[in-house]
Every structure is written in C-alpha cells, then in structure tokens.
C-alpha cells in the first residue's frame, strides 16, 4: 500500500472514503487512482478532539471566579442552558436585559431570606465568554456570603459546580477560543513579568492562531493544486506549470516553518523562563551572587569552601525576563561523598541550562585572566563570566577571560562585598540576556516569537517533515505527494485544534482556476 511508505502516527490516519464524499461532485465523478490506494480502517478522529456534548448533556455550571477571601467584591459565574432559570430563582425578577449590569437582591431559591445585595449581569449566548448564556453575580467578598450564594446555587437541581477550567473548556468547545488562545489565556493569568504578559496577550488575542492558520491555509492551497493534478491530468483540463507552482509554494512554506523553528526557543524561554546556572570554583562568591540577585539571604554563605551542596533554585525577574537561577556546589575534586554528589549535580545543571554564569574570584586568576582549569573547559558560547572579589585584587586587569579554547564571552568584574561594579553587571547582564534571546521588550517587536509551547514545536517539526517528504516526490507520485501535504496541514491544524483539511480544501477547490 502506498501509505505504508512512511510510518505515520495513528492520529493522522485518514479515511479516504469518507473524505472523498465531500469533494465537489464535478470532480468526484472523475477516476481517482488513490481511492484504492489509501483506504484505511482507522478513523480520522484526532485523540485531542473532544466531541461537543449536546445541550441536553450539558448542565448549567457555577463557580466563584475571583480568589476566595475578604475583598470588595467577588464574582460568581454561572453558565449553561438554565441560566435564566437561575435568574428566576435567585434574583426573582422579570427576564434581565442582556449585557446590562443591574442592582439586585440575591435570594435563597427556597427560603425567603436575602443572601446579599449585589449586582448581576446577564450575557446572552453566544455573545458571552463560554458562548452559552452566562450570568455573573457581583457580590460582597466574604467567606460567609460566598458560601451562602454557592450553597443556594447547589439547591437548584439543574446546576452543578464547575470543574477546574470548565468555563474556558466550554469557550473552546463553543468555538470562542482555539487552543493557542486557551494557552494564551492561561499564560496571561500566570504571567509574572512584562515580557510574559505581552507574549500571552498576543496569543490570547488570536494573533498567534492567525499566523498558524495562515500557514495551514498556505499548505492547503498547495494541496489543492496537487489534488487538481490528480483529478485532471496536466495539459488536458488544467493550466501548465501547476505542479511546479505547487513545488515552489511548498519550498516557501518549508522555509517559513524552518524560520519559526529556528527561533532559539525564544518564545518558550520567554514564557517559561531562562534557565541560568551559576557555577565556578569553591568560594568564588556564587551563593553571594544568588543572594545579591534575589536581594535576600536565600543561600548559605560562609568562608568555608564547599558550603553549597544541593542545587538551590529561585525564580527572578531580570529586566522583564523571567529567569530561573540555580546556585551550585563549587567545582573541585573531593573525597567528601556529599560534596561529590553536589559537584555531579552542578555539572548536570550546567549542561541543562540555557545560560551559565561562571563566577571566578579575582584571587584565582592571573593578569591574563586565565580561568582555573576546573572551569575553563566548561565555558561554551552560552557562558557568561563574572570576576568577583575585585576588592581583594585592586591591581587586577580588565582583560577578556582566557579559557584557552577561544570561546568569546561576556564578562564583568564586581566586588559583591563593596558593591563595586554590581550596577554595571546588573544592567549589562539584563541587556546580554535580551540580546541573547532576541527579546526586545521595549518596542512592539514585529517578530514576536510564534512558538511558546513545546506542543507547537512538535507539530511544526512534523509538518516540516511532511513537506520535505512531499518535495522528495516527483510529478509521477502526485498521489503520495498529496497525502504528505494533507498530513502537513493536519499537523499545523493540531496547533490551533482545527484539523479538518477538507472544509478549506473544498472551498479552495471551488475557486481553483481550472481550465475551461
Ligand atoms: N572580599 C570579598 N569577599 C567576598 C566577596 N563575595 C563573596 N565573598 C565572601 O567569600 C566567601 C564565600 O562566598 P560564597 O558566596 O559562600 O561562595 P560560593 O562560591 O558560594 O562558595 P561554595 O558554595 O563554598 O562553593 C564568603 O565569606 C563571602 O562573604 C567579594 O566580592 N569580596
Ligand atoms: K563558601
Ligand atoms: Mg555557595
């Protein structure tokens, strides 16, 4: 069978028979050589696809949408088909005017007692967050009030408490949000730095999805050309050069995907944080540096070499960039079993880091600034160097560090004891990180990284693989070529959660310029 040529993940398996039913009739009446070739018994449903439950199965859900505790207001959100019933039972008024805040008494549905004096707003579906009818109750935020309102809702048989993330899930299922927007929304709530906020806002607003969708449509356009060649042989009913056109399109698309993938993981790093490992010989001042950056006594600092054993990890905001810093044991040969384990862990942490900062005491280096042998070999193009304890060697030069392997690196000189050079180090280091990861947070960068989750990278890599496979086929293999493109489109579609190639293919096919 033709499709066995490449091992395909089961999720991309495709039922050609069902697919073909939706191709426009004037085309499907023609012979399809690949109809026989690509029949498969597996279904085309992606494991990530969640069928939309019917309204009958869908209960009305409620939850407190603000953090619990004492505050000015709390918002209880209710979503589902019975929202107007909820209104009737606990606000006890005529039907609400949609999207208008109303002052109201919130009543217990069975007893006659009033629970709070608050505000309510009704969002009529589909113009709501979940696309269902939504009611928001703005009440005073206090434990007893919140408990009484949630308790009252639990008395309504058609309501149940929402599961974690269920409002957003319904927004996704209702088509209000696609997957990058859901991810963006979560990242936005989790954002702790300016860079994270901007990146997440872009995703939540749909700009990221639009770029993935452009890519997917581009692949499908290319596929439409190949499909046309299958249905009409070139030169007969169809313009010349269509095959070449499709190949050129595919080459451009591949270059675009490659450019997205070759982003040094900027988006993922900006979202989840730069992993920075501090390393160096014992007593260089590594833990002192961690404490200086954290502005608190997070790590134990003593004059005893070998003080730090375990890795100590902290998350910090350095110039708008989230940085996860690891302080490690000083590197030296040792007979102490515990210290040996610490040194081993330090080496692993250096390897795993996005960036390493090698701290060396000015006392441990000479006028040529040769790095001690224990650390010189660990310097790579991802390493920055800090010469510390400049107060102990006022005569120290300011030469570039010499690691004997010629790797150029950024370096600074400080005294963490007197504070000399620390301000320059801080600004220089933040700038070096921005440059390193191409994170220009000060301007509205036109080249915001596209990939912010490992999931995006996996699907784009797989799409690139399929397009490459298409480019390896020849004009005689158009049937296989079309399948490769179809898989490529599906791989990109998995990023946004849209995997149905046929909808778009059909419409493109209809517009496709076929000779009269
Ligand atoms: N004179 C001077 N002493 C410093 C400076 N920075 C740190 N120290 C001292 O150097 C000693 C070692 O500092 P640590 O921060 O514990 O060094 P470390 O590299 O973490 O050491 P280990 O964890 O043992 O590998 C402490 O007594 C610090 O107070 C500096 O700039 N000048
Ligand atoms: K020490
Ligand atoms: Mg230490």
UniProtKB/TrEMBL annotation:
Belongs to the TRAFAC class TrmE-Era-EngA-EngB-Septin-like GTPase superfamily. TrmE GTPase family. It comes from the Eukaryota. Residues 31-51, 391-410 are annotated as: Disordered. Keywords: GTP-binding, Nucleotide-binding, tRNA processing. It comes from Mycena chlorophos. PANTHER family: TRNA MODIFICATION GTPASE GTPBP3, TRNA MODIFICATION GTPASE GTPBP3, MITOCHONDRIAL. The keyword Nucleotide-binding applies. This is tRNA modification GTPase TrmE. Residues 399-410 have a biased composition (Polar residues). Residues 273-438 form the TrmE-type G domain.
């Amino acid at each position: 069978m033709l499709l066995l040529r490449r091992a395909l993940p089961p999720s991309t398996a495709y039922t050609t028979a069902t697919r073909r039913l939706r191709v426009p009739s004037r085309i499907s009446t023609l012979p399809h050589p690949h109809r026989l070739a690509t029949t498969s018994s597996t279904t085309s449903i992606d494991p990530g696809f969640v069928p939309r439950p019917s309204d009958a199965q869908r209960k009305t859900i409620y939850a407190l949408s603000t953090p619990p505790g004492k505050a000015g207001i709390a918002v209880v959100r209710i979503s589902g088909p019975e929202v107007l019933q909820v209104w009737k039972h606990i606000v006890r008024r005529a039907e609400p005017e949609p999207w208008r805040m109303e002052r109201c008494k919130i009543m217990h549905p069975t007893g006659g007692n009033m629970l709070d004096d608050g505000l309510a707003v009704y969002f009529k579906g589909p113009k709501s967050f979940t696309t269902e009818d939504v009611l928001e109750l703005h009440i005073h935020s206090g434990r007893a009030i919140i408990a009484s309102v949630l308790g009252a809702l639990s008395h309504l048989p058609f309501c149940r408490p929402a599961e974690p993330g269920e409002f957003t899930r319904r927004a996704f299922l209702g088509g209000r949000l696609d997957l990058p927007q859901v991810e963006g929304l979560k990242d936005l709530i989790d954002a702790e730095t300016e860079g994270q906020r901007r990146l997440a806002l872009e995703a939540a607003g749909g700009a990221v999805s639009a770029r993935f969708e452009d890519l997917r449509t581009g692949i499908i356009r290319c596929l439409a050309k190949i499909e046309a060649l299958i249905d009409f042989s070139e030169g007969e009913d169809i313009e010349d050069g269509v095959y070449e056109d499709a190949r050129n399109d595919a080459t451009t698309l591949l270059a675009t995907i490659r450019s997205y993938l070759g982003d040094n993981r900027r988006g993922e790093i900006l979202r989840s944080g730069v992993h920075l490992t501090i390393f160096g010989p014992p007593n260089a001042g590594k833990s002192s540096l961690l404490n200086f950056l954290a502005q608190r006594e997070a790590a134990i600092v003593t004059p005893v070499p070998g003080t730090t054993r375990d890795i100590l990890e902290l998350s910090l905001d350095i110039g708008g960039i989230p940085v996860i810093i690891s302080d490690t044991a000083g590197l030296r040969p040792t007979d102490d079993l515990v210290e040996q384990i610490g040194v081993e862990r330090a080496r692993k942490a250096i390897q795993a880091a996005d960036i390493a900062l090698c701290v060396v005491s000015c006392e441990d280096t000479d006028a040529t600034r040769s790095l001690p042998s224990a650390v010189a070999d660990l310097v790579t193009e991802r390493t920055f160097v800090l010469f510390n304890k400049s107060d102990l060697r006022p005569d120290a030069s300011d030469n570039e560090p010499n690691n004997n392997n010629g790797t150029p690196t950024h370096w600074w000189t400080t005294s963490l004891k007197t504070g000399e050079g620390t301000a320059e180090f801080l600004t220089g280091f933040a700038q070096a990180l921005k440059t390193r990861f191409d994170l220009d947070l000060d301007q509205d960068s036109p080249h915001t990284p596209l990939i912010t989750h490992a999931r995006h990278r996996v699907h784009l890599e797989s799409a690139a693989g399929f397009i490459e496979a298409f480019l390896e086929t020849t004009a005689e293999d158009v049937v296989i070529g079309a399948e490769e493109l179809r898989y490529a489109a599906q791989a990109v579609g998995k990023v946004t959660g849209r995997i149905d190639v046929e909808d778009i293919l059909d419409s493109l096919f209809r517009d496709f310029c076929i000779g009269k």
